[in-house]
Write a structure and sequence with these properties.
Strand content: over 45%
Number of helices: 0
Distance between the termini: 40 Å
Structural class: mainly beta
Helix content: under 10%
Radius of gyration: 13 Å
Low-confidence stretches: none
Order of helices and strands: EEEEEEEEEEE
Number of strands: 11
């Protein structure tokens, strides 16, 4: 059974950087699109970035474009999220997700319902 485990969340200062990892186990994910979402306290889960199965194409929301970079290492079964120039509004629980029915980030990639496998999340706090 495919399972996802996020790690790398921490307390960071504004302007700082963090790298999140999402390690898959039980099954390879190299044929599936993968994404990162986040959820701030009292808010709905929102999309951050998506990456195609081959790692050659990505999609990001405007609020993180130019600051966050999603990548993957299919040999290691891991998806990463490099977060630079962090802002307090980036604070939240970050989740990785996989679409086991598709290999690309479709037009509605930003909808949580497009993904069927989720990790438990890792906390990111940006504060001085």
């Amino acid at each position: 059974q495919l399972q996802l485990a996020e790690s790398g969340g921490d307390l960071a200062q504004p302007g700082g950087s963090l790298r999140l990892s999402c390690e898959a186990s039980g099954q390879t994910i190299n044929e599936y699109a993968a994404a990162w979402f986040r959820q701030a306290p009292g808010k709905e889960r929102e999309a951050v970035s998506c990456i195609f199965s081959n790692g050659r194409s990505t999609k990001d929301v405007d609020s993180v474009n130019g600051r966050f970079t999603i990548s993957r290492d299919n040999a290691k079964n891991i998806v990463y999220l490099q977060m630079d120039s962090l802002k307090p509004e980036d604070t939240g629980v970050y989740f990785c997700a996989v679409d086991s029915h598709g290999s690309w980030c479709g037009a509605k990639w930003y909808r949580p319902m497009e993904y069927d496998i989720w990790g438990q999340g890792t906390q990111v706090t940006v504060s001085s």
